[in-house]
From TrEMBL:
Carboxymuconolactone decarboxylase-like domain residues: 43-122
Listed name of the protein: Transposase
Lineage: Bacteria, Bacillati, Actinomycetota, Actinomycetes, Micromonosporales
InterPro entries, per the entry: AhpD-like (IPR029032), CMD-like (IPR003779)
Species the sequence originates in: Micromonospora andamanensis
Length: 193
């Protein structure tokens, strides 16, 4: 349950937004109603998200895995659900996508993917724990433009995830509605409270 009740999306802009979101996701998430309370913040957040989807210096799959790793570490169930749903719709390897929350234990990721996942988690720590060695490996494997893009993508994921967690916005079953199997849980996690 969100800490701020969702507002009704009203007016022409609200009706148009609901139509677009329903077409894209099948339903209007409560998060949209919560953000509707401050339309400038909503527009900026959505604009930044749209802009980030047009970046193309870094492999999309790597960015998707990094996004899921960051939001999983932060604990944003809404972001993780949305990321898994989008992975399904974008043709990402779902066997890998569902393993992101337990990537350290899983054997499905390449060395480069593991470095990207480690980087996303290191960026998402408070304070960040990114090392020179990890950055150098990624710079060597990806190149400067892709590493800058990956860093910005993970930073944007952190912004959204931390905002959603603080506002109490939780998963709404978007991935389950697609018939996707549940995300894997790390072996040290037995249940979520």
């Amino acid at each position: 349950m969100a800490r701020i009740p969702a507002a009704e999306l009203t007016g022409v802009h609200g009706a148009l937004l609901k139509r677009i979101i329903r077409k894209k996701f099948g339903a209007v998430p409560d998060a949209l109603g919560v953000m509707w309370h401050n339309r400038r913040v909503l527009r900026t957040s959505m604009g930044m998200g749209r802009a980030a989807t047009r970046w193309n210096a870094c492999d999309q799959d790597l960015k998707s895995y990094a996004h899921m790793a960051a939001v999983s570490l932060i604990g944003c169930s809404f972001c993780l659900d949305l990321g898994y749903f989008q992975a399904h719709n974008e043709g990402l390897d779902l066997a890998k996508a569902r393993e992101v929350p337990r990537w350290r234990e899983s054997e499905v990721f390449t060395p480069l993917e593991r470095d990207v996942l480690a980087y996303a988690e290191a960026m998402s720590q408070t304070p960040p724990t990114v090392t020179d060695d990890l950055s150098a490996r990624l710079l060597n494997q990806l190149g400067a433009p892709a590493l800058v893009e990956l860093t910005a993508f993970v930073a944007a994921a952190n912004l959204a995830a931390r905002m959603n967690v603080a506002l109490g916005i939780e998963a709404q079953g978007m991935a389950a509605a697609c018939g996707l199997p549940p995300l894997a849980q790390p072996s040290h996690v037995t249940s979520r409270a």
